[in-house]
Write a structure and sequence with these properties.
303 residues, alpha/beta, 6-stranded mixed beta sheet, 35% helix, globular, binds guanosine-5'-diphosphate, binds magnesium ion
């Protein structure tokens, strides 16, 4: 038997779940060593399921970053996000439940209820420990958490600083089932460049705008074309009302220029080539509460 035949490979899907803002996307990016998933302090930053793939020797980890689970399901967008998050726990090998070490909330309890219906191994991550000065305070939290569901491990860490993340990956490897690798060793996501570009533009907008407006917008790539050494990208920022258009554009176009500049710089790094980026702002009334509009803007049941 050759050496390859004798090697036992491990492979599995790991869903990262939790309420909004606990650091799920930051954790996935940290594990991958690459910024794939967009992050911000505002809820609804992650709207799509996103795979992050990491292969280390014989082990292939397929992470699923999910939208936060929202307790308010009043709009079509929030219902879509909850379905995407709950659905992402179907047919996975491990669920990683992320909580903020500083703040337990009712929304965390809502996620625990979903976890109780799972049959696969569960790992709890107590994130943001860099914000906890007195580490003794972690012990009662870990104790409390251990009573909420039967976790195979509880790992305190800081996704932002990268502390404790290795220990998490070790625990996950021990829980990964044997199996064949589904992706090439150097593949890191299942998403297209087009998708990653639209998301990165939305991240810059989300961070630039106040609390309410990020919910009212989405980004659609109209053109993505290689022309010589440049990649020519044109994107539409859809808002719900004409008043919002002015806010996104800003005084004399200042805000839109900042968003365009920040997005272009990061995208050139992500794609490894020069980009010509054009942004347009257009109004489509009520798109986020209209199932058909959501569908046509890329919010599909499968992701
Ligand atoms: P998600 O909604 O669960 O995906 O959360 P994000 O990954 O978008 O993070 C939400 C916010 O928490 C962002 O501002 C992150 O920078 C911040 N954050 C994430 N992890 C940590 C951490 O370990 N420490 C600190 N201090 N902040 C973090
Ligand atoms: Mg996220």
């Amino acid at each position: 038997m050759s050496k390859i035949d004798a090697q036992i490979n491990k492979s599995g899907v790991i869903a990262i779940v939790g309420r909004p803002n606990v650091g799920k996307s930051t954790l996935m990016n940290r594990i991958l060593g690459e910024k794939l998933s967009i992050t911000s302090r505002k809820p609804q930053t992650t709207r799509h399921r996103l795979l992050g793939i990491k292969t280390v020797g014989g082990s292939q980890f397929t992470y699923v970053d999910t939208p936060g689970i929202h307790s308010n399901a009043e709009t079509a967008m929030n219902r879509y996000l909850n379905r995407a998050a709950a659905g992402s726990m179907d047919n996975v090998d491990v669920v990683v439940f992320v909580v903020d070490g500083g703040k337990w909330s009712e929304e965390d309890d809502a996620v625990v209820e979903l976890l109780k219906q799972q049959h696969c191994p569960l790992v709890a991550v107590v994130n943001k420990i860099d914000q906890i000065g007195d580490k003794e305070k972690l012990l009662p939290l870990i104790e409390q958490l251990s009573k909420k569901a039967s976790f195979d491990a509880i790992v305190p860490l800081s996704a932002l600083k990268g502390k404790g993340v290795d220990q998490l990956e070790d625990r996950l490897e021990s829980l990964l089932p044997e199996g064949v690798h589904l992706y090439d060793e150097d593949q890191i996501t299942d998403r297209s460049e087009r998708f990653l570009v639209a998301e990165r533009i939305r991240e810059k907008l989300t961070r630039q705008l106040g609390q309410e407006l990020p919910y009212a917008l989405t980004v659609e790539i109209e053109q993505f074309k290689e022309s010589g050494k440049l990649t020519d990208i044109s994107a539409v920022i859809w808002v719900e009302r004409s008043g919002q258009k002015g806010i996104v554009i800003g005084k004399k176009g200042a805000r839109l220029r900042t968003v365009g500049k920040e997005a272009r710089e990061e995208l050139e790094e992500l794609l490894g080539r020069k980009i010509f980026l054009q942004l347009w702002v257009k109004v489509r009334a009520g798109w986020s509460d209209d199932d058909r509009a959501l569908h046509s803007l890329g919010y599909r049941e499968d992701g």
